Amino acid sequence: MPEQEPSEHEREKVERLRRAMYSRKLSENLKPRDRRVLDLTPEIVGDDWKKEEPQTPGLTVAPRLIGVARSLLWWILIGSVLFFIAAIGIFAYYFAFGQGSLSANPRNIDISVQGPPQVAGGEPTALQIAVVNRNRVPIELAELVITYPEGTRALADQSDVKTSCSSIEGEAGGAYDLRRQRICLGTIESGGRKQGKISALFAGTTGSHADVKVELEYHVQGSSAVFVASTNYTLAFSSSPLAVSIDGNSQTVSGQPLQFTINVASNANASMKDVLLSIDYPFGFKFTSATPSPRPGGGASEQLWALGDLAPGQKKSVSIQGVLTGEQGDNRVFRLSAGTRTSENATRIETKLADNTYTLQISQPFLGLAVMVNGSDKSAVVAPGDNVAVSIAYQNNLPVEITDAVIVARLTGTGIDGSTVHVIDGFYRSSDDAVLWDKTTTSGKFASLAPGARGVVTFNFSAPESDALKSASDPSIDISVNAAGKRLSEAGVPQNLQSASRQQVKLATDLQISSQALYYANPFGSSGPIPPKAGVETTYALVFTVTNTTNKIKHAKVTATLPNYVRWIGSHAPSTEKLAFNQFDGTFTWDVGDIAPNVGLNSTPPRQIAISIGLTPSVSQIGSQPVLVREVTLRGEDEATSASITKTAAPDVTTNLTQVGKSSSNSVVGTDPGFSLGGATIVK
To answer: 20 to 30 A from 289, CA-CA: which of 30, 169, 217, 477?
Structure first.
């Protein structure tokens, strides 16, 4: 019987056993087996026989990693098959239905644009454009479409790629404002190449970038569809066709007029059409005027100027005047832009070609000025006819000297009498009510003021009298002080300087109060003897009259006191006036309220009240002229000046009816008609 070859399974089991025997890790698991007892009973062995071998656990024979690796390999194999099937599907779709099915694929068309690495704004720039067809079939009706960035211009004869179907979209003048250009290339054979050059004037600010978009539109034989291949070319600007510069000081004084000039110049070799200038003002700037004037309708913080066309090398200037306010040390920035627009109706710059900034620092005045009126640095209030003393303190705040200094104080508002003006070391110019000091009036003192130099100049005048204020309303006198001088600028050029200060003198209204007694003209009717007799009551009327000149008086009240021998009978006229009497101390209060200007003047009736009183003299008063009312006082508030006013009628009213208590000279109130001095003295 031939020897039977072991099976593959048996060989694998032997091999695993061999590896386990020689393995340091697994050999420990192989232990000696118990010896079998010899069985003398013979076994029956057939022709085919096999011996069952004890099963050894797989974990003790070989690592489990072999099974894991086998599973991983199966998954990799399955994934590879699926990927191969998907790739076949994608390629089939691409070549059957996708772009691979096109006979002329846009990806097989090369468009190259070559030009300088940097472009000078406004300078002619040439771009070389080449188109190569790498498709297997020709492309037909090819048109090159060039889209230019805003502000691009080209001369009409500057295109070197021209056919009968070429066109330019833009505004034509001496030059073209280019937006889009179409150039017909016709048919480009497979492997064919067409190229050409275009020249344009590109516009942009220094350091900025712009894109030129180049597209090729074409057809293929047997199709009406339009296919497009495109590329972009980026321009980097090394300079701008316009330049914006500013001429002005780097410092200003808060609240003082300032002026600066903006210059817009052309750096281009061709004319720049319809140039605009825009200024964005900082917070605190108040525009006053400009030369030339800006476009109407500009906002409070931004204005626009239409400068027109600029020839190569031409410069145009705009002068700005205004006032900048702020705290000392603040920096304020003006932002300037120049450019073009596509239509005259545009209200903003559509293509910015240049920009700049102008920074101003708010500093203290070069010549500090402090104005004081009657010793106060605040708004002063003076009565008509009062003396007004003005002192102006000055100080050089610069680190350099000021030469040819001039200080001028102008008096405006209510007119004054120039003959009352007295000035020391100065000159009063009556033609414009100005007081000035310069190097000629100060014996050369103002010819040069050293850094930190200080001093004081003074003058005084009389406020207008009441008669001159009768037709005035809220009269006041403004004292505006302006100083001028020169210094050497940072560039060594003489520079004019200005400084200003202001003070106001308010004129109080001429409020008057008068009081008198009436017997014969008593509106209530009189009784009792004249002259008065001791122990017998004689009745009178007390009349109080209020007049006012220029300013409205608010919350006015009149108070007075009756002696203990005089009683208030209880009547007053007009009855609409508010009158209160205190019988314990004999005082009464007339609540006048508001007093309008010009009351009692210019045919306007005064404010009046009459009260009825009775006098019962004592024998101790025989031979005297006793007081009927004392301490007649008017109080109120001047609405224009917010000052409190107090007026007292003096002397006190007595039985001498020819005597009138007035707060000042007053011709409104007369004496009692028919009364003589003989009726004033008390008799027995």
So the answer is: 477
